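User: Could you write out the 3D structure of this protein bound to zinc ion? I've included everything you need below.
Assistant: Certainly. Input first, then the structure.
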Amino acid sequence: MTTSILEKAKQIMKNGYICDHCLGRQFAQLTKGTTNAARGKAIRDIFAFAEDGNGKIEIDASNLSGYVFRNSKIKKEKQKLVCKICGNFFDALGVVAKKAASRLSKFEYENFVVGTKVSGDIAGREEVLWEEIGAEHCEPIKAEINRELGKLIEKTTGKKADFENPDIVVLLDMDKNNIEIKPSQVWIYGLYQKLVRGIPQTKWPCRNCNGSGCKKCKNTGKMYPTSVEEIIAKPLLRAFSAPNSSMHGAGREDIDARCLGWRPFVMELKDPVKRKIKLKDIEKIVNKDKRVKVRLVKFCGKDTARKIKAAKLTKTYRIIVDFEKPVKKEDIRKILKIRNLIKQRTPVRVAHRRADLIRERRVLKLTGRIISKKRVEFLIKTEAGMYVKELVTGDDGRTEPSFTGIINNRAKVKALDVVEIGKIKV
Ligand SMILES: [Zn+2]
Ligand SMILES: [Zn+2]
């Protein structure tokens, strides 16, 4: 059973004044291609005609203030009427839009979206109204403000509102009477090589002070002076005028390992002021640093970062292994037959940050070359996630089988490089 539209309108206007926006919004789901203000005005007009026809319309007269009647005795109210729902908020929308546009002008963006934190008072009054008249045809005031403010900002700035993938978000906080401009992250897909040992992939906060700076880290707040992330991010942050970044790599090499294969990553730049930067220009700047080589391939989205994080890519390592006792060709032959599943219990060296469990990974390819009596170079291709150092050492029996175990000759990793990483399609 639905109350007729006019009956409902009558209930809404029975007590106190309501503006066209708030009146029309209660019927927002009816008809398309118009505005709530126009809906409200249309309904109000009907009541004005009825009033001028035979009167007895049973609504608060203030709702018809301003009409010029032929018969009705309703007069224009002397004071400005204040909407019982929004407190005439919509009158201020033009000013808000101008303020937003001026704040936006320092940013580079093609499109935007508006978000509103509606005043608690207004939301509360709207809910009370819905309890009285039902909410079946209405939309929340938040939706109307977002849309109408969006239209005004479009007009002022010439940029387009985009609800799917906005470059920038305009956040209106009604209670605080505040506009916050929040640029969306810039995501860049790239590949890197790490040509030196001794630097981590990402910034590593000092364990002692957790990043705030102490004697141990010489007030840098970091365990290592730099990282692949910082080397790549520094010129990007400058070019995009962004305060912060976060790097998402397809796995990571150990600090003491080089990465000579191209490792995919996504660099996330937070709160960038600029967005139209030629990646090739930045690539050149990064590549002046001799420790890291980078290809900044293209702009991408968050989904690419997710994909890269989840990717299970095969890796090929070159490992220089030192054995405790001299090795013979026969020993190497035995080791090269290791190609079945390797069972690995979480290594001691990572046990502090990973769950203790046993996992199985496959060696896909293995070749070896004796360099000297006790030194052998291996090329190992493995499934993603193999603890390759432990495959060599055996990690005191936690990895089975291992080079150490197979020939009963303690093996140690002298040097390790990632020489190839499986491809990923982005
Ligand atoms: Zn209103
Ligand atoms: Zn510290």
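The mean pLDDT is 94.
User: Perfect, thank you.
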